[in-house]
Design goal:
By secondary structure, the chain is an alpha/beta fold. Helices cover 27% and strands 20% of the residues. It has twelve helices and 21 strands. Strands 9-8-7-19-20-21 form a six-stranded parallel sheet, sandwiched between helices. The chain has a four-stranded antiparallel sheet with strand order 3-4-5-6, with no helix packed on it. Helix 2 links the parallel strand 7 and strand 8. It is globular, with a radius of gyration of 27 Å. The N terminus is likely disordered.
Length: 489
C-alpha cells in the first residue's frame, strides 16, 4: 500500500511508491529552494515538489491501481455524504426563570457548543444576548420569538442576509444622559464593528412600560402607548429603508427583593417578559427582525454578583449584543400561498416569549380543538416550498431542544407535531434546565427524548446527525422488534 508523509506548512503530502525504502528528505523553506526526496541508494524519487515564495507546485505520479482505489474512495464518500444540512432549533423561553438561559446570556455556551456540532442553529435573542457580551457565530440564525413561532407553524421561512440596515427606536422616557450612552453604543457599533445603523427616532410619547407576573410566576408586562412605538418603527422601516429594529425602552426600577435575587443568580428576570411583548409587537406588525434593550440607570457595585448576571453590569447599556445580533438576523420569507393550517391558531392568545401555561393548554384542548396540539388539514400549507441554500423552512428542522418543563410554546407544539411534511424533528427535553412553567412533552402527547443536561443533549444530536438512533447508545438498547397493528394502539 502507498504511504503518505505530511509536510507542514506548505504541502499536504508527498507520495512514495511501495518500492521506496529509507527515505531521506532535505528541506529548504524559502526563496526558490527545492525540497527533494531521494532514495538512500541514489535512485531518483518518484515525485519531486518544488516550492517558490507564495507558489506550490504539486506533481504526482501514481499507478492505475492507486488511481482506481482513490476513485472508489471518493465515490464512497459521495454516496454517504449527508443529503442536506443538519438544522437544530434551540429554545429557552424568556422570563420563566430558566436555570440556564434565564439570566444574562448564560445559555450562550450551550449555543456555542451546539453551533459547533450542527450545520445550522436557529435560536432567539434570549439565548444569544449577553448585554455587553456576545459571540459571533456564522451558522447561528438570530430569530425573534414571535418570528420563530411563525416559522415553526409553517407561515414563513428564514432567509440569510449579509447585513441588515438597523434603525433604533428610543423611548421618550429615557433620560438625556442614558440616551447619550445608548447613542455612543450605536456610534461604536459603526466605527468598530462596521454595522449599518441608519439612525434613531425618539417616540412621540412615553411607552409606559409596566412590569407584571403571571399566575405561574413568569414575568410579563404591558405598554400604555404601543401605537407610538409602532409609528416610530414604521417610519424607520418604510421611510428610511431599515431592515431590522432595535428598541430602547425606559423600564421602571425593579422591586429590590427581585433585583437582589436576580443578581444572586436565582429567581425570575422581571424585565424579560415585557421585552418579549415589545419585540413581538414590532415583528407581528412590520415583519422585520426586532430585539429590545432595556434602559436602566447603573446599579451600585455588588462584590458577590453572580457570574450568570454579571454581563449586564459591565457597562451602561444592553444594546451592544442587540445590534450585533440584528445585523445578521435572517429576514422572514412568506409562503407564496396562504397557509390555513390549524397551527396558525396557536399563535393567537399566546403569551409572548413563554408559550402557554398548563391551564391555558387545557382550555385550548377543551375548545374547538380536540387534540393536544396542532393537526393537519387538507387546506394546510403544501409539503414543499421553493427553497434556496440561503433559506430554512420548518420542514428542514432536524432537532428541537427545549427545557423539560417549558414545552408549551407554539414552536415546540408545531415542530413536535410536524409529521406530514416528511421530517419530524427529534424533540429533546433537558431536565436540568428547570423553569417556573409546568408543561412537559408528555402532557401534549409529544414524543420526546429526555436527557439530564445539555451535555447529554449534544451527544444525542451527534448520534442523530450521524444516522444513529440515540436510544441505541444506552445500555438497555437491545430491544426486540415488536409487531405492529392497524389501527395503531
Amino acid at each position: 500500500m502507498p504511504c503518505t508523509v505530511p509536510f507542514a506548512p506548505r504541502i499536504s503530502c508527498i507520495y512514495l511508491p511501495p518500492s521506496s525504502r529509507n527515505l531521506h528528505v532535505t528541506d529548504a523553506f524559502e526563496g526558490g529552494a527545492a525540497r527533494t526526496a531521494k532514495d538512500t541508494a541514489g535512485a531518483p524519487a518518484t515525485r519531486t515538489t518544488t516550492f517558490a515564495v507564495g507558489i506550490r507546485r504539486h506533481v504526482r505520479s501514481e499507478s492505475r491501481e492507486d488511481a482506481r482505489l482513490r476513485s472508489d474512495a471518493q465515490a464512497s464518500h459521495e454516496v454517504f455524504a449527508p443529503a442536506r444540512p443538519y438544522t437544530a432549533v434551540l429554545i429557552v423561553p424568556t422570563g420563566v426563570g430558566a436555570a440556564i438561559g434565564g439570566y444574562a446570556g448564560d445559555a450562550l455556551p450551550v449555543a456555542r457548543a451546539m453551533g459547533g456540532l450542527v450545520d445550522r442553529l436557529v435560536t432567539h435573542p434570549n439565548v444569544l444576548n449577553g448585554a455587553m457580551m456576545y459571540w459571533p457565530m456564522d451558522n447561528a440564525w438570530y430569530v425573534e420569538g414571535h418570528a420563530l413561532d411563525r416559522f415553526a407553524a409553517g407561515e414563513c421561512g428564514l432567509r440569510a442576509v449579509h447585513q441588515n440596515r438597523i434603525g433604533i427606536v428610543i423611548d421618550r422616557a429615557v433620560e438625556h444622559e442614558l440616551k447619550v450612552r445608548h447613542l455612543q453604543v450605536a456610534d461604536a457599533a459603526q466605527a468598530t464593528l462596521g454595522l449599518d445603523v441608519a439612525g434613531y427616532m425618539v417616540t412621540e410619547q412615553y411607552l409606559g412600560v409596566a412590569l407584571e407576573k403571571t399566575e405561574t410566576g413568569a414575568s410579563t408586562g404591558t405598554l400604555s402607548n404601543p401605537d407610538t412605538l409602532l409609528k416610530a418603527a414604521d417610519i424607520l422601516v418604510n421611510s428610511y429603508g431599515c431592515e431590522a429594529i432595535a428598541v430602547v425602552a425606559r423600564f421602571p426600577d425593579e422591586d429590590l427583593e427581585e433585583l437582589e435575587n436576580y443578581r444572586d443568580g436565582v429567581g425570575v428576570d422581571a424585565l424579560a417578559g415585557v421585552e418579549a411583548v415589545i419585540s413581538h409587537y414590532i415583528v407581528s406588525n412590520l415583519g422585520v427582525p426586532c430585539a429590545h434593550a432595556p434602559a436602566l440607570p447603573p446599579l451600585p457595585l455588588e462584590v458577590g454578583l453572580s457570574p450568570r448576571s454579571a454581563a449586564e453590569e459591565l457597562g451602561y447599556t444592553f444594546l451592544p449584543c442587540v445590534l450585533a445580533g440584528l445585523s445578521r438576523a435572517p429576514q422572514l420569507v412568506p409562503r407564496n400561498v396562504e397557509t390555513r393550517s390549524n397551527r396558525s391558531r396557536l399563535l393567537k392568545g399566546m403569551r409572548p416569549g413563554q408559550g402557554f401555561s398548563k391551564r391555558e393548554l387545557l382550555n385550548f384542548k377543551s375548545g374547538s380543538h380536540s387534540s393536544s396540539g396542532p393537526e393537519e388539514d387538507e387546506s394546510a400549507a403544501p409539503w414543499r416550498v421553493p427553497q434556496s441554500a440561503s433559506e430554512i423552512w420548518a420542514s428542514d428542522v432536524d432537532a428541537v431542544i427545549v427545557p423539560e418543563t417549558a414545552c408549551g410554546s407554539p414552536a415546540v407544539l408545531c415542530l413536535g407535531k410536524r409529521e406530514s411534511e416528511g421530517n419530524r424533528p427529534l424533540l429533546i427535553t433537558v431536565k436540568e434546565n428547570t423553569t417556573v412553567m409546568d408543561v412537559r412533552a408528555a402532557d401534549l402527547d409529544l414524543e420526546s427524548l429526555q436527557v439530564s443536561n445539555y451535555m447529554e443533549a449534544l451527544g444525542a444530536i451527534a448520534a442523530h446527525k450521524s444516522g444513529v438512533a440515540p436510544a441505541s447508545l444506552l445500555r438497555d438498547s437491545s430491544r426486540r422488534t415488536k409487531e405492529l397493528h392497524y389501527p395503531p394502539e
